[in-house]
Design goal:
Layout lengths: L2 H4 E2 L8 H13 L3 E6 L2 E6 L2 H10 L9 E4 L1 H7 L4 H13 L4 E6 L12 H6 L1 E2 L2 E6 L3 H12 L4 E5 L16 H6 L2 E3 L15 E3 L4 E4 L4 H12 L12 H4 L2
Parallel strand pairs: 1-9, 2-9, 4-7, 5-10
Antiparallel strand pairs: 2-3, 3-8, 4-8, 5-7, 6-7, 10-11
Helix pairs in contact: 2-7
């Protein structure tokens, strides 16, 4: 299938999140792979074990290199094991402050949402008893997640690029082998946080430590200190306004 045949919306047609998300959901339910826009670049997502494995190989992932669950606050609350006050923090960040965030924490291995996963997929999405769940990422991604959650399934994904080649913020910049692996490509043009040239923030809420300084880390750091008194290391590349003036 040509790239043109995989593209939605049709060139010249504006995005329709609900319509486009439903098409992605249907493709994923049939065992397909989708390339979708997110705030931190285009992502490669799947929900069946076989498709997740194909996506993993398309990226030339090394053994032991994990992928993440693509979720929302409900998925995070259902699967992660954290004190209630930590869930209060993540809810404020992702709901009230509308932040996209990769949340790492221990997980409930016996939860029904995970029972349809193969052992291989579970191994690819967990490490040392923890699971990373990306919460947020834009309205289309959240709608795809919601549709899956309603039928008791989860979405697995990663950035739409060959491992080590960096985030892709336009479809035309995605490597050919990644485009060929996808069954549907949602092209919404240049994505929001292209100025950072970074993936999402990864924060371990079990140990309260930074795993990756991603896009908008300076906002995350400032908010963690302002609202919860949590001091985190500064980002020397993108310092907050107070540090710029020092």
């Amino acid at each position: 299938m040509t790239l043109q045949a995989k593209l939605i919306p049709t060139p010249g047609t504006p995005p329709n999140v609900h319509k486009d998300a439903l098409k992605v959901f249907q493709i994923l339910q049939e065992g397909g792979i989708a390339i979708v826009p997110t705030e931190v670049g285009y992502g490669l997502i799947a929900s069946s074990s076989e498709a997740i494995t194909r996506a993993f190989h398309a990226k030339t992932r090394r053994p032991g290199h994990t992928q993440g669950i693509i979720g929302n606050y409900d998925v995070h609350k259902a699967l992660h094991i954290l004190p209630e006050e930590r869930f209060d923090i993540t809810k404020v960040l992702t709901h009230d402050l509308d932040m996209s965030l990769g949340i790492i924490a221990p997980y409930k291995s016996d939860h029904p949402l995970l029972q349809g996963m193969s052992a291989e997929t579970l191994e690819q999405t967990t490490k040392d008893g923890n699971m990373a769940i990306h919460v947020g990422g834009g309205s289309l991604l959240l709608e795809v997640v919601r549709l899956h959650y309603e039928v008791g399934k989860v979405v697995v994904g990663s950035s739409a690029n060959v491992t080590g080649k960096g985030q892709k913020f336009r479809v035309q910049d995605i490597e050919q082998k990644i485009l060929e692996a996808a069954d549907i490509v949602v092209d919404y043009g240049l994505q929001r946080y292209h100025v950072y040239w970074r993936a999402s923030i990864l924060f371990d809420f079990g140990e309260m430590r930074v795993v990756r300084m991603g896009a908008c880390y300076e906002l995350f750091r400032e908010r963690m200190k302002r609202f919860w008194g949590v001091e985190l290391e500064e980002d020397l590349i993108y310092p907050d306004e107070d540090e710029k003036g020092e």
